[in-house]
Amino acid sequence: MADLQAIAENIIKGQAPKVTELVTEALGDGTPVREILHEGLIAGMNVVGQKFKNNEFYVPEVLIAARAMKQGMALIRPRLIEEKVEPLGKASIGTVKGDLHDIGKNLVAMMLEGAGFEVIDLGIDVSPEKFIDSVKTQGAQIICMSALLTTTMPSMQTTIEAVKEAGLGDSCKVMIGGAPVTQAYADQIGASGYAPDAASAAEIAAELLG
Ligand code: B1M
Fold it and tell me: Which residues lie closer than 8 Å to 97 by C-beta, 6 or more apart?
């Protein structure tokens, strides 16, 4: 019988080869792919998120755990599609127009994926039009915007206004974050949510779509 707890523990330790071995074994012995995903991979990433929030883990540990998670996901993804396992939701994420910082944005993307979201990563320097296109053509249910510069924060407001003008205000949520961003700013520009760190971002996104 597959050891799902061992998969979770090796995600936390960032042991990608061990995760690959255990996930392959689990798929081989017929463990349902949903269980491998939720009780193995996501369970491990949840602990990583909590440790990051509590300052027990720092960026390098999270990146190493995320790499292990990605390898496990690559193995189960064909089976998830085959068995039509629904993601928690579809999120598009990007650093806003004019802003090239992507370390925090990448962490948020990984935590979203680790929580069970399908993530469309739009990269850096993302215009309002590109965010809107991710909703219209790819079915994103939540737009996640990151900004690290006070000078690029207004692009978040421009995007929110463009979302409303495009008539998508009811069909998609908008979450914002990044070092200079605050809850007060999110309230001021009418964002649906704000998260101070990557682990909270995954929790808030799940709440917003729940
Ligand atoms: Co830049 N930079 N930088 N920089 N840089 C800052 C942000 C700055 C504070 C440094 C400083 O002056 N002390 C300053 C901004 C000042 C301001 O606006 N108030 C600054 C500046 C001025 C600049 C340039 C203008 C410098 C210049 O060229 N004169 C330039 C701008 C380029 C541009 O974007 N157009 C620039 C360039 C760069 C580099 C390219 C050299 C590099 C970026 C490399 C990269 O990202 N690939 C860089 C870096 C590394 C930084 C610092 C040192 C680190 C940022 C970082 O990655 N932090 C930064 C100073 C600092 O913060 N100490 C600085 C780690 C990361 C994990 O944290 O991104 O905050 P963070 O993400 C967190 C949370 O904020 C949250 O979760 C993450 C994990 O917990 N979060 C979200 C982030 N996005 C979220 C989205 C969410 C929810 C949560 O929902 C959607």
Answer: 125, 126, 127, 128, 152, 155, 158
Which two tokens mark 154?
């207004």
Alpha helices by DSSP H, 36-123: 43-53, 59-82, 103-115
Pairing of strands 173-177, 193-194: parallel
Single out the residue of 123, 108, 102, 130 nearest to residue 175, CA to CA. 108
With a 6 Å cutoff on the Cβ, whether 175 touches ligand 1 is yes
With a cut of 80, say whether residue 29 has pLDDT above it.
Answer: yes
Residue type, 37: L
Instruction: Output the pTM of the full model.
Output: 0.91
* Ligand 1 lined by 111 (C-beta under 6 Å): no
pLDDT of the residue at 118: 94
Residue linked to tokens 């998508």: 168
